[in-house]
Amino acid sequence: MNSFENSAGAETLSTISLDSLPIEVFLMICERIDADTLVKSLMYVNKQFYEIISDNYLWKKRAMRTFNDCNVAFMLTSVYNENTFNWKQFTWHTELEDSCWAEYETKTTTTVFSGAHFSEVDAVIMARDGNHCISASRDRSICLWNTTIGTNNPVVHKIDSHLGWVWDLEIYDDHHFLSCSWDSKVKLWNTDNFTQISQPIQTFR
């Protein structure tokens, strides 16, 4: 091979770039790039990339492949509408959520709170302030905990809430939560004065 052929080959190689690749090859590369990089970076390189990566069908196909048909159907439940559903947002945020838990054992710390309940804990919810959690137990009580790291006494308040096992808790709004029990009652509690009360503000049968 003469010097002219060498220089021609080098010039050809130097002109190869992502936007010069066949669309099929580019899509195969996209399949191996995480959704966050595609959405935040690659799609803004140029107009061509933006149009390709914005395609709703591309993200639908990615979701079906990544999460499989059954899981996708379960996650969508009744919110899905073929004409309006945003597959890019759905797939992007679902992949982000999955990545947060992919290495949770090495990327998270564990804090154990104990000393309040004497039976199994069946429900725990985080308060909206992010610094407290509420637990419900088969000992018929509900506890408010301070989850701030380094707290010497994490138990803020304990209420004998029901006449039976407390099965579940649910945040109602920024100031209230609900509890349900084996005693066939659902109770509404006010979190603003949780440490001062021993009775719910309303009971449903």
Automatic annotation (TrEMBL):
Keywords: Repeat, WD repeat. Residues 15-62 form the F-box domain. The keyword Transit peptide does not apply. GO terms for cellular component: transferase complex. WD repeats lie at residues 114-146. The keyword Signal does not apply. This is F-box/WD repeat-containing protein 9.
